[in-house]
Amino acid sequence: MTEDPRSEKEKQAYKEMRDKVTIQTIRRRAREVLYNEQAPLIERLKAAEKLKKSYEKVGDKINNIDKHYLNGLNKYLENLNINNIVKIDEESGIITIKGTTNKSVKAFPNAVVDLLNPKLDKITQRRFYDEKGNAKVDIDLTDHGHPKTHPIVPHAHDWKNGERQREFRPLTEVEKEKIKDIWSDEE
After folding, report:
1. Using one digit for the tens of pLDDT, what is the confidence trace for 134-148?
2. What is the pLDDT of residues 12-27, one digit of tens each?
3. Which residues does 11 contact at the CB level (< 8 Å), separation at least 6?
4. Given the DSSP bridges, would you call strands 163-164 and 122-129 parallel, antiparallel or unpaired?
5. Taking a C-beta distance cutoff of 8 angstroms, is the pair 153, 170 a contact?
6. Euclidean distance between the first and final Cα of the chain, in Å?
7. What burial class does residue 115 get, using C-beta atoms within 10 Å of its C-beta: 0-12 exposed, 13-18 middle, 19+ buried?
């Protein structure tokens, strides 16, 4: 094996240049996922961690665009109450949280959040969000303990101007298809 003819200074300069390219590549790949609103939440979370670590590793200050996306992700997770997340389905991207109510009026664009009621130990609601991340429709899988006023189960409550509508309606065929993994007509 022949010896490297470069001086220590040249070796160090090459290593620094290579490290810089590696950091840029990590950031570029992380941004591609983080900025893609169609990417599953679990992938966006992993990308956010890689992006943060790339800045920490070299002691750089996070640029404004990355900071904007990372702050948005953090606000979303706070709103969702990360402590209540039971699982994030890697294939569908559906987030399951435990609790008796879903207080998240905002989420990622086109997000889907299931509410797992710990007392009943079953999913009692699936909330769909629109392309801007606003609550769009709740599909409730119970009669809320009021069979006379909620005779249709499951049923849908639409959201208008950030408010859940009290009136409910039967599910459309498309909505029935979207809940077939958590509901069957035999229930």
Report:
1. 999 999 999 988 899
2. 999 989 988 999 999 9
3. 4
4. unpaired
5. no
6. 73
7. buried
Is the pTM here over 0.70, yes or no? no
Distance CA 42, CA 153 (A): 31
Side-chain-facing half-sphere of 103: CA atoms under 13 Å: 9
| Dihedral angle computed from the Cα positions of residues 8, 9, 11 and 15, in that order, rounded to the nearest 10 degrees | 130
Q: Please give the radius of gyration of the chain, using alpha carbons only, rounded to the nearest integer.
A: 23
8-state DSSP, 172:
P
Neighbouring CB atoms inside 10 A of 26's CB total 16
Q: Which two tokens stand for residue 56?
A: 């920490």
Please tell me what DSSP assigns to residue 33. Answer: H
Sheet holding 135-140, edge to edge: 85-88, 95-98, 112-117, 122-129, 135-140, 155-160, 163-164
Q: Is 40 helix (H, G, I), strand (E, B) or coil?
A: coil
Helix-helix angle 64-80:41-58, to 10 degrees: 130
Token pair, residue 52, equals 């943060």
